[in-house]
Amino acid sequence: MKTMHLAVAGASGQLGTLVVNELIRQRAIHPGMALTAITRTPGHHAAWQEQGIDVRFGDYDQPQGLAAAFHGVERLLLISTNAIDGTGRRLEQHRHAIAAARLAGVDHIVYTSFLQPEEGKTSLLNDDHLATEALLQESGIGHTILRNAFYQDLLLVVLGTAAMDGQLRTAMGQGHVSCVAREDCAHAAAAALAADYRGNRILDITGPAALDARALAAIAAQVFGKSIEVVALDADSRARHFIAAGMPASMATMLAGIERWLATDAMHLVSDDFTRLTGRQASPVQAFLQAHRRQLLAPTLPPA
Ligand SMILES: NC(=O)c1ccc[n+]([C@@H]2O[C@H](COP(=O)([O-])OP(=O)(O)OC[C@H]3O[C@@H](n4cnc5c(N)ncnc54)[C@H](OP(=O)(O)O)[C@@H]3O)[C@@H](O)[C@H]2O)c1
């Protein structure tokens, strides 16, 4: 059997780590995979190296070394970076990665995009993903675009102190959101990478339901056994509230901006692409909240 050379770029991030570990698990069942992890911090991954993973340095801000990092790779997972600062840096990073993949002769790129990127709508979330999807089209490299919905994991921040004070403050208005677990996004990415699909496709990776703030509050109320009311805020007040709770201003503004984006119903789509790709059911919000109940009862802000 021919060995397929798969690589995860951005392997040290939360999603990347989950994908590498899932591929290690799959490799144990279906040998015939060579695995490479590409990251800015290869020195942190002795454990992966001990499991036969080729760990390489790669930084999209240093494009001169990237083609060497991608050498020999047939299928590459390109995880969108977290340089979400409105300067255009993230798009440049993705441009460098796609150019290097082309130079290295990568056959197929799996890219983690965001649900419902739309022409004519501008936001920090929309623009880089739309432009990166266009770069992939132009590259001529076969690609699978995974349009991931809003992570359920972000509910740990969005719900804030709701489990304690019974108030779900939000700027998402009447919008709906089809939150998906980061872990499910990792299963989708691993499946798309290990598949033998060679054309160009776009898959919407969503949770099983689109929920508005009232539905989220009702699920949270059920999980916490207390009533939770929705307190509607505009985005500026929401950002001020995050900051008052100790969140750095840049992150507060970004999260409030995401909620304002959700208010336009920009992420309501529900798809069964996840199930068709992985053979699993996407995990519902209720299961996520139940699993993180203790954390939500003693919330701490995530690092900036
Ligand atoms: N769907 C959602 O709700 C949602 C939420 C948050 C983020 N996202 C997006 O999904 C991505 C993965 O999520 P996550 O939770 O794993 O985020 P994360 O833990 O913050 O990971 C950040 C990722 O960016 C990579 N990165 C940053 N700068 C880079 C550079 N100069 N060159 C190469 N790679 C670079 C990191 O790779 P290394 O550290 O390995 O170099 C890592 O994979 C994020 O980066 C973001 O674009 C989506």
Structural features:
304 residues; alpha/beta; Rossmann fold; UDP-galactose 4-epimerase, domain 1; 2 domains; seven-stranded parallel β-sheet; two-stranded parallel sheet; globular; binds NADP nicotinamide-adenine-dinucleotide phosphate
Describe, in short, the structure shown:
This protein has 304 residues and is of the alpha/beta class. It is 44% helix and 16% strand. It has helices spanning 14-29, 46-50, 66-69, 89-104, 124-139, 155-158, 162-165, 182-194, 213-224, 235-244, 249-263, 273-278, 285-291, 293-297; strands spanning 4-9, 33-39, 54-57, 75-78, 108-114, 142-148, 167-170, 200-205, 229-232.
Describe the structure.
With 304 residues, the protein is an alpha/beta fold. It has two domains: 4-148, 3-Layer(aba) Sandwich (Rossmann fold); 149-181 and 206-269 and 283-304, UDP-galactose 4-epimerase, domain 1 (Alpha-Beta Complex), CATH 3.90.25. The protein contains 14 helices and nine strands. The strands form two sheets. The protein has a seven-stranded parallel beta sheet with strand order 3-2-1-4-5-6-8, sandwiched between helices. Helix 5 (124-139) links the parallel strand 5 and strand 6. Helix 1 (14-29) crosses helix 8 (182-194) and helix 9 packs across helix 13 (285-291). The termini are far apart. The mean pLDDT is 94. The structure holds NADP nicotinamide-adenine-dinucleotide phosphate. Residues 10-16, 39-41, 59-61, 79-83, 93, 112, 114, 148, 150-151, 154, 182 line the site of NADP nicotinamide-adenine-dinucleotide phosphate.
